[in-house]
Amino acid sequence: MVSQLTDQLNKVTMRMLKTYVQQEIDQHWQQVREDYLQELENIFAKGGDSAYGFYCRKLFDPITAELMNAGIIPRPIMPGLFIHSEEHWGSWEDRERRFWTVLQQGNGNTLGTLVSRIFHDHSRLRIPRSPQVYVIGETEPDKIAHMIVNMDPVSAENFYGGTNNE
């Protein structure tokens, strides 16, 4: 059983990590797209959505490395695995796919789950806006999948004990 102090520390840590990750995304998402545009166009021409997977790797790999250097272990690596993701939101031209990764400390303490919202266009290569992240306290895969499908991001994060403004 997790103590009340550990629970509160986990929540504070997850909100801080969410803020850090979102700042990194906001700072780099457009530059990553520009830096890899030719490769993204080639991949999209051959395999459509796989271009967005390539983009996510280029955007999230440096963030993953920073977290790991700080003793935070993302499982699976950020933003998460395609087979565990969900895509149910938005029009064909402005679609949202949600990925998740459980964050742990090096000592094995599980902190919570970071959910990444990736916005993309199925009709052409386009990332309409910055990816967004939010946190949830659930760490069991089946329960995570249920939460990301059935709760909107603001409700999920408020349910966890934070707000998108923290």
Poorly predicted runs are none
Structural class: alpha+beta
Rg is 16 Å
Quote the distance from N terminus to C terminus: 27 Å
Q: What string, H for helix and E for strand, traces the elements in order?
A: HHHEEEEEHH
What is the β-strand count? 5
Overall 3D form: globular
* Number of H- or I-type helical stretches: 5
Work out the helicity level.
40-55%
Mean of all residue-level pLDDT scores:
91
Largest sheet features: 5 strands, antiparallel
Fraction in beta strands? 15-25%
Could you say how many structural domains there are in total?
1
Outline the secondary-structure elements.
Layout: H1 4-35, H2 37-47, H3 50-69, E1 72-75, E2 86-89, E3 95-105, E4 110-120, E5 132-136, H4 141-150, H5 153-160
Antiparallel strand pairs: 1-3, 2-3, 3-4, 4-5
Your description of this structure?
Helices cover 49% and strands 21% of the residues. The chain has helices spanning 4-35, 37-47, 50-69, 141-150, 153-160; strands spanning 72-75, 86-89, 95-105, 110-120, 132-136. Strand 2 (86-89) and strand 3 (95-105) form a beta hairpin. Helix 1 packs across helix 3 (50-69). The radius of gyration is 16 Å and the shape is globular. The mean pLDDT is 91.
Describe what is shown at a glance.
Helices cover 49% and strands 21% of the residues. The protein is an alpha+beta fold. β3 and β4 form a beta hairpin.
